[in-house]
Amino acid sequence: QGDDQFRTGLADRETGALTYFITGAHDEDCTLYNAKVPLSDLPIGPNCESVFLNCEWGNFFEHFYNPITGQGFYSLKAGGSRPAPFRAEDYERAIKKLVCSSGRYTNLSDNNRSNVNDYFGRILHILQDMGMSYHTKVEPHIVEKPLEMYVQDNWAEIASSTYFQGAVSVQGYSQTNYSPGRCIDPTVAMRKLALWSNVLPADQDYYDVCRNDPPRGLICQLNQEKLSQNATLMSAEATLFTTGYIDQIWRAINSDCICE
Length: 260
Description:
Strand content: 5-15%
Radius of gyration: 19 Å
Oligomer: single chain
Number of strands: 8
Shape: globular
Structural class: mainly alpha
Largest sheet: 2 strands, antiparallel
């Protein structure tokens, strides 16, 4: 019954899980710089009643994780931030607290169910970031981010490409375990995806044909072919792991393992 209810709710455009997966994924990038100035958009989901009161902001600086060193983002000004898996575990604990106070997912009030699904969306955002080499090589990309901008500007082309269509399919999905964690634990999948993306190019690797042009300084041309190829690879793999974690949520709700 839990699985059926979740699948039905996932498809409901107004109140379903997918709606709050999206708000959570959006809000996870909404970051307060120096705890005062929004770094990007304002939160829109149910875990932020008001940007001035009872608002759970995201934190871009905790979306980094080098699976080789275990380190997260570090700045000489801001100091060190926790690796991404730690933040995902915070949301896992928040989900368990809400679900277990009601006994099971299907007993949640509408408000609490919205909050839980928003938290799942935040986890999905962090998991997807583990598919981008910027995040697993711990490169800030706050201003210069050609890889992410390419995905944003060319998503339709990426999603319709032969590679993406072949990889993101039932056959492609069935070839690998994309949801290896127990119950709703996202950290196993995060590490697995991070190890995969960590070997791919990032940051300056996408630039070539550099020339010095005073007073503007060094100007480098983007290698569009390299950018396109790797953006497609990473997008496909991140999509597969996203699907895997949603499957993991379905199984968790159906088995009632969240409160065990």
